[in-house]
Design brief:
- Two copies of one chain form a homodimer.
- By secondary structure, chain A is mainly beta.
- Chain A has two domains: about 1-100, Acyl-CoA thioesterase, double hotdog domain (Porin, Beta Barrel); about 120-260, Acyl-CoA thioesterase, double hotdog domain (Porin).
- Chain A has helices at about 25-40, 135-140, 180-185, 195, and strands at about 5-15, 20, 25, 45-55, 60-70, 75-85, 90-100, 110, 125, 140-145, 160-165, 205-210, 220-225, 230, 235-240, 250-255.
- Chain A is globular.
- Strand 8 (about 110) of chain A pairs antiparallel with strand 14 (about 230) of chain B.
């Protein structure tokens, strides 16, 4: 019970559903894949704390998720999931999972959802003509606060982006509601905060940690992401996700690189 | 080069230097042990992003750190380090490491060190008579802001603790200056934020992520730790560490359990 045990690997095919441009996979999408593999068949179906290191970008095509159950306890399980391709580790994650019931009364709560303009005054994340294809914008229905959209003209003074989010309705299929696993995907769903500053460099995630705090209620979620420090090519980003009832449902932090445009 | 490779394991003896009470090892101390094992012999000596899941409490005595180099890149290496004891995984960490030079000018910076009273007006962390022995208080010289010391009488309204910190001078030996590895230890060095609220439950760390942003300058550091939500037995804590020149040198987040006193 307590010794680590390898579970069956998951073979999969990485396609263009969630790519940016021709082949860059969305980090949040990959994290959700690993989270799902980690909790599959476990008595603890909900990721509570997930931390992942992004080592190398996977290519389109066949890949494998190796799964190792490190411990199964009474209230939580801990599992390693690793995305490998051609012997290279692309993404290595550890998932502590449990069972989220109906949330109780907080013993302490601080903060509030970000203040956002009404949906109809926000910017849809549809790519502009001439921009690269972006699978995230096809899968997520994101409505960004124009006051923080520095990439469109006037840079913000603060490294912060915020907006409404839900899954898109893809090709007429029923809209997926956001569940705890999907929060792993959303946690990397906003544009990088550097875009609010009008900076157009590339922001590759190096490490991403997500804490899931509650099962989200149906409906639109609100997200806000901000940074403290961009220095020596490194950037932190902290993200909060609040559900339609005003409850904090996930917190995420990441360390990313910052590579200025050539 | 790119395939994962097992490195020699590190055998060690866990003693009472950093225990709370008779045998509970300090989480930050354990994290630094794993961080040190992960960067040993690497061209990338400084931990940049470290994430760790705490699975089971190690006991005093023999333990082993298993080390696996996942990738060595040009600018960063990624390494897994795992503390095992009797076949049980106690702590599983992934370390992305690099080389920190003299810090450059920030491209963006937000926030400031916590405002603290002068050292002589702060509370030393020496255990009070009747309190359990606490190795942390023997190894770290911590001076806490009395305005946030809810455990001494008047509970704070905010779940926040803050203070000055440096290593203690142990038995007259020269004081160790805080280096990047030591920041992994300090990141779990403050009392839990629940103590500011006057709550006396046990706060076991489940997941701890530390981002090291710069090499700290010599001298006293300032730390602040706060929470957003205590709910259903789970608590988040975010920590910042600032050096004596007013530079942000580390950020940490953790998800912890909260177990009320019996």
């Amino acid at each position: 019970m307590t010794a680590p045990a390898a579970l069956p690997a998951v073979d999969l095919e990485l396609d263009r559903t969630w790519t940016y441009g021709p082949d860059v996979q969305h980090g949040g999408y990959l994290l959700e894949l690993l989270g799902a593999a980690a909790v599959d068949g476990s008595p603890h179906p909900h990721p509570l704390a997930v931390s992942a290191h992004f080592l190398s970008a996977p290519k389109l095509g066949a890949a494998r998720i190796e799964v190792e159950r490190l411990r199964t306890g009474r209230s939580v399980s801990t599992t390693r999931a690793r995305l490998v391709q051609g012997g290279r580790v692309c993404l290595d994650a550890v998932v502590t999972a449990g069972l989220l019931g109906a949330p109780g009364e907080p013993g302490y709560a601080e903060g509030a959802p970000p203040e956002l303009p009404p949906l109809e005054q926000c910017l849809s994340n549809t790519p502009q003509p001439g921009e690269p294809r972006n699978g995230i914008t096809e899968q997520l229905d994101l409505r960004l606060d124009p006051a923080a959209a520095g990439w469109l003209g006037t840079p913000s003074e603060r490294a912060e982006v915020r907006g409404w989010v839900r899954f898109a309705s893809v090709e007429g299929a029923p809209r997926r509601e956001v569940d705890p696993l999907a929060l792993l995907c959303l946690a990397d769903g906003l544009p990088p905060v550097t875009s609010a500053l009008g900076l157009r460099g590339w922001v590759p995630t190096v490490e991403l940690t997500v804490h899931v705090r509650a099962r989200p209620a149906p409906g639109w979620l609100r997200m806000v992401q901000s940074a403290r420090l961009l220095q020596d090519g490194w950037l932190d980003e902290s993200c909060e996700i609040w559900d339609s009832t005003g409850r904090l449902v996930a917190q995420a932090t990441q360390l990313a690189g910052y590579r200025p445009p050539a």
